[in-house]
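Hi C.,

You asked whether I'd gotten around to modeling the 184-residue construct. I have! Everything is below, sequence then structure, no commentary in between.
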Amino acid sequence: MPSATRDRALEAAVELLGAEGVRALSHARVDERAGLPPGSTSNWFRTRRALLGGIVDWIAEHERADLDPDATPTITELDQLIEGLCAVVELQSGPFATRTRARYALFLELAGDPDLGEPLRRQRREFERWAEAIVSAVGITDPAPATRALMALCDGLLLHRLTVDSALDTRPAIERAVHALAQP
C-alpha cells in the first residue's frame, strides 16, 4: 500500500484522537475520516494497539520535524528564551492544537504501557535535553531543574489554553518564571 495513504490514515487518526479522544478511535472511524475504503487502516494496523503505536510514532516524527533544533535560531539571551517558549506554546495550542490534544490523550492512555508509551517519553526526554542546553546557554544556573520547571509551566499553560481559555496570554507567566529562575 502506498505510504501516502498510510500517512493519510495516521493523520486522520491523530485528528480523530485529538478532537474526540481515545474512546472514539477505531479502525472504521479512521477509514471514514481519512476517506479510505473500509478496512484500509486495519490492513496496516491489525490491532488497536498497533494503531496506537503508529499514531505515537507519527506524532513523534512530526514534532521532531517541527521543532528541529538545527532549524531554530541560536538562543543566548533571556528575552530570546521567553520569546521561544511563548512561540512554542502558541504553536502547540494554535496550529498544532489537535496534535497536542492527541499527544496528551496518548500520554494518559499509555501511562501504564511501557512499550507503547516509551516513544512519547523518549521524545519528551529529547526535547528536555535540547531545552536544557538553551537554558544553560542563557546563563541560568542549575539548568536541569530549571528546564523541568519551565517545561511543566508550559505544559500547564498549554492545557489551560486547550481546555479553558484559548486566548490566554502566556507571556506574563513565562516572563516571570524565566526571570525568577535566572536569579542567582
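If it helps when you're writing up: The mean pLDDT is 92.

Thanks,
B.
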